[in-house]
């Protein structure tokens, strides 16, 4: 089983739609969680950290469910510019490496 | 922009050759991590350097080696290149080597091995 799993998609949604991605992780001791966005042939860029209480940044909401070992990303009112690959990242205690999922590809259609 | 720079941006090598990739970390950051991203995959951790010492290593063979310099810039060296080494190589810097520390990525070096 992979340490971090994501549905690769693609998710094709119309502009203005709400879309949600989930990511599951295998290590119950994982302590830090992030969502990164990666545009085609570019580097990953931090979208948001994911906190236990959940957090929101504009149209983006991230949630952490420790009991079920998943994190989620909700995007409201999708824009064409949201089209990208969204990478789920987990950081386990005792190591400083990021463990990435394969990414979920989102296409927002006009 | 993150302030993390990498060079070169693109590189073509042949099997068996050696390559050196370079990374300059964001100002004030003393930790550099290197990742390999194959097409269609998420980045895979190669190793991390903190204050010029290797601070953790992923599942990569010894022909992948690195250095960190006193100014915290870093190099990734790959010997005896194989076709499967073709990938995007990303470096990320962070303020400290901490579990919750955000890592900021450079633009990457795209390596093609023929």
Biggest interface found: A-B, 26 and 30 residues
- Estimated radius of gyration of chain B: 13 Å
Q: Unreliable stretches of chain B, pLDDT < 50, 5 or more residues?
A: none
In percent terms, what proportion of residues of chain B is strand?
Answer: over 45%
Oligomer: heterodimer
Strand content of chain A is over 45%
The largest sheet of chain A is: 6 strands, mixed
Which regions of chain A are unreliable across 5 or more consecutive residues at pLDDT < 50? none
Gyration radius of chain A, in Å: 13 Å
Series of secondary-structure elements of chain B, N-terminal to C-terminal: EEEEEEEEEEE
Shape of chain B: globular
Helix fraction of chain A, binned, reads: under 10%
Mean pLDDT of chain A: 93
Distance between the termini of chain A: 37 Å
Largest sheet of chain B: 7 strands, mixed
Distance between the termini of chain B: 32 Å
What are the secondary-structure elements of chain A, in order, as H or E?
A: EEEEEEEEEEE
Overall average pLDDT of chain B? 92
> How many extended strands of chain A?
11
What secondary-structure arrangement, pairings included, does this model have?
The complex is a heterodimer of chains A (110) and B (114).
Chain A: E1 4-6, E2 11-14, E3 19-25, E4 32-38, E5 44-50, E6 55-57, E7 60-65, E8 70-75, E9 84-91, E10 99-100, E11 104-109
Parallel strand pairs in A: 2-11
Antiparallel strand pairs in A: 1-3, 3-8, 4-5, 4-9, 6-7, 7-8, 9-10, 9-11
Chain B: E1 5-7, E2 10-13, E3 19-24, E4 31-37, E5 44-50, E6 53-57, E7 64-68, E8 74-78, E9 87-94, E10 104-105, E11 109-113
Parallel strand pairs in B: 2-11
Antiparallel strand pairs in B: 1-3, 3-8, 4-5, 4-9, 5-6, 7-8, 9-10, 9-11
């Amino acid at each position: 089983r992979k340490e971090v799993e994501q549905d690769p998609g693609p998710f094709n949604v119309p502009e203005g739609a709400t879309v949600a991605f989930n990511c599951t992780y295998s290590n119950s001791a994982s302590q830090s969680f992030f969502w990164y966005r990666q545009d085609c042939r570019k580097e990953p860029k931090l979208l948001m950290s994911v906190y236990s209480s959940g957090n929101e940044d504009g149209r983006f909401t991230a949630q952490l469910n420790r009991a079920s070992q998943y994190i989620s990303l909700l995007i409201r009112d999708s824009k064409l510019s949201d089209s990208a690959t969204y990478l789920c990242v987990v950081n386990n205690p005792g190591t400083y490496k990021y463990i990435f999922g394969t990414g979920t590809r989102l296409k927002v259609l006009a | 922009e993150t302030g993390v720079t990498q060079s070169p941006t693109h590189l073509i090598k042949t099997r068996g050759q050696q390559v050196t990739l370079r990374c300059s970390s964001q100002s004030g950051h003393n930790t550099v991590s290197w990742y390999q991203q194959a097409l269609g995959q998420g980045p895979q951790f190669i190793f991390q350097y903190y204050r010029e010492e290797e601070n953790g290593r992923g599942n990569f063979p010894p022909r992948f080696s690195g250095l960190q310099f006193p100014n915290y810039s870093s190099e990734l060296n790959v010997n005896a290149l194989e076709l499967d080494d073709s990938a995007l190589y990303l470096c990320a810097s962070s303020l400290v080597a901490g579990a919750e520390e955000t890592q900021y990525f450079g633009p990457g070096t795209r390596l093609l091995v023929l």
